[in-house]
Structure formats: C-alpha cells, structure tokens
Amino acid sequence: MVGTLLTVGILIALALTHFFPDNPGLVLAVCLLCVLPISIITIRAQLEHMLSLFRALTGTVTSYKDGDFSFSLHWPQNDELSDLVAAHNELGDVLRQQRLDLVQRELLLDTMVQNTPVAMLLVSESGPVVYANVAARQLLNEGRKLEGHRIDDVLAHASPALLEAMARGGDGLFTTKEGGTEIDEEEVYHLARRSFNLNGRRHELLLLRQLTMELRRQEVQTWKKVIRVISHELNNSLAPLTSLAHSGAELVRRGQTERLPQILATIEERTRHLESFILGYARFAKLPTPRLEVQAWPAFLARLHDEVEFTQTGEAPAEPCAFDPAQLEQALLNLLKNAHESGSPPDQVSLEVRRLQGAVRIDVQDRGPGMSETVLTNALVPFYSTKRSGTGLGLALAREIAEAHGGRITLANRDGGGLTVTMILPLASGLS
C-alpha cells in the first residue's frame, strides 16, 4: 500500500515538474492534494478490514466463554495478523476437542453412576436434592424424580431405620423390612455420608448400599467354615475314642486289664480336649456384655503371671482402671499363648501396659517368625488359623473382648523378627 502511494506521488510530481519547472512549491501542493485523499481512502479501507477482524476475534472469545468452540476465522493476507488468526483457530480446535472428550467422559460417568446399584443423592446445604441416580429414585421415591425436592420431604416417607441412621450422623448400618407381604424380609443397608464444597456452597453426598446378599453370602461361607472346623475336630477326637473303646472292650473280654488305666487316661485326655474345644466356641458365640470392675494393674498382672509365663516390660500404671477382669484375662491369655506357640524363646515373650491420653495400651510381643501379609490381613477373622490343630478363635475372641470394651486390636511385625499385638482400651468408654 505504501509503495503504491509513493509511485503515484512520484509520477504526479514528474508530470507537474515538466509543466511547471520554475514553481516547485506549486508542484508539491498539487502532489499533496492528489495523493492525500487517495491515502486516506486506502488506509481507511485497510483499517476497516482490521477492525472487522478484531470484532470477529472478540466475538469468538465471547463464544469460547459460553462454551461454543465451533467458530473459526479467515484472514486472506500473509502477514502478522494471519499468524494471529492461525494461532486463534488452533486454540479453538484444541478447546473443541477437549470439550468433546469431556462430554464423552461425562456421558460415561453419568451412565456408570445411573446404573450403579448404590443409591446416590447429592444434597445442597439449603436442603434440596441436586442429583439422584436411578437406584436412589427407586429406593426413596418409587422411581420418580428426586431433584428439586427437599431431603426432609424425601425422607418423610422413608423407613424409620433410615431416619434413625440419618439422625445418628456419620456412617453406619441399618436394617429395614421390605416386601409388603405377610412375611417381610429384612434388608441390610450401609449409609455413607461425605460433605464437601461445590461451586462455593456446602453439599453432602449420601450413599446407600444394600448389603443383604453380600452378608448372606458371607454368612453361608462362615457357616461352611465352622462346619468344616467342627467336623475336623470331632473326627480327630471321636475316631481315636472309638478305637480306644473297642480296644478296651477286647482287653476286658480277654481278661487283660493291665492296659485299661492307660486307655482310660487317653480317652479322658481326648474328651477334655473336645470339651475345651466346644467351650471355646461357646465363649466366642455368647460373649456377654463386659461387667466393669475397678482393678489395680499390679494385682491383675500378678494373677495373669500365675496362669502363663511372660516378662513384664516397664512399670504397670499406678492408677486403677475399670474393665471386666475375667474377659480381659481370657483375651491376654490367648495372646500370650499364641506368642509362646509362635516358636519364640519363652524369655522373649513380654507384656507391657502403658497409660495414654484417655486410653490404656497393652502390648504383647514375641520373637517368633512374625506373620506374612496374608496372615496379618486374616489373623483376626474368626476360624482363620494356620495351625493344624488351631480353631482360629484365639485372636478373634481377643478382638471381640477389646471391641466390647470400646477398644481395638492391631497386629504388626517387629524389626528383627517377631510380632507385636497391641490392644487399645479407651478410658472414655468406661475405663478410668
């Protein structure tokens, strides 16, 4: 554009100089009068194209803000503005592809959430339901839409068990009856609640998972395992008893009674073992509620030491505590017996009682081989045992006793070999 204007100006100047060689001022003035309007018109036309491009850029940016990435621009000239337009179009292509990928992921996620058997409700802090999947609609509103309804109105028609679980707060299990028949079936649900901020506002996510089928499956598996363990133990005891009784009868028939005391002693030993086995199952199945009594730790540990060998680490707390002495003694006897049966040297089996902030910690340690990751995961499960003659009830009973006191048990391998079984009894649940 500039080169064209200069060429035109030079040609006009040469022509005027030829006609007016003695008046250069007039030549300059005429040149300006000729070139200036053409320059203004040309520059204005070019600026109009550029302004149109800038308006188009503004419009596409506004469309991007609104989530519309379908626009692209065209600039015919090969200059810096064409580079800007090309970069702008590439940005639009990238955003358009990202938006398409995001939509596909949202569709996939929505399909998964809608078809999951877990009932999901998203509730805003003001009360209305923001989102509910198919399972939630079927569970709470006979398949009808829940979005927009207040959660209190939705739960007004829910089962009393769900209302009680909501009132308790936090996660938990509840049982309700369903079916509408003369024989209603009990259904077990797990309620999980999570709060978080969404778009600057507080929301709560409610998850209701039906556990009935899973619990029934676990119950069947547990009963099968119990039957296998009991059958194995009964066979191990009854088969020798039958053989010994037959041998004793034959000896009596022959008049050879000198071996009868040995046979009867063996029968008595196997009978007592079977009795102990059955009593162990009975204690686990019928663990009573702990009867808390104030106990002094030194006297309690002295009585325990009379039952089983162990090394006491550190001084026992001077303050007395409230717990069920018979149950806690049984739990610690099981833990110490396991420690001795691990192959640990007897003098390396130790017990330590420490007072924590609001709790009591009891550690039973040994120097046996420890446990593998698989055994650590399953050791507290009832009837799980790696011993040929084990019932799998020692650790499980100890855990039941600890949890009945409001505490817990953990297992951990020790550095250098061995196992640490830790029992935590919180003072807040009755201990002092």
Automatic annotation (TrEMBL):
Record's catalysed reaction(s): ATP + protein L-histidine = ADP + protein N-phospho-L-histidine
Sample GO molecular function, one term: ATP binding
UniProt-listed InterPro entries: BphY/WalK/GraS-like, HATPase_C_sf, HATPase_dom, His_kinase_dom, HisK_dim/P_sf, PAS, Sig_transdc_His_kin-like_C
PROSITE patterns: HIS_KIN (PS50109)
EC number: 2.7.13.3
The protein's enzyme class: transferase
Subcellular location, record wording: Membrane
UniProt keyword Transferase present: yes
Regions that span the bilayer: 27-47
Stated name of the protein: histidine kinase
Origin species: Duganella aceris
Upper classification of the organism: Bacteria, Pseudomonadati, Pseudomonadota, Betaproteobacteria, Burkholderiales
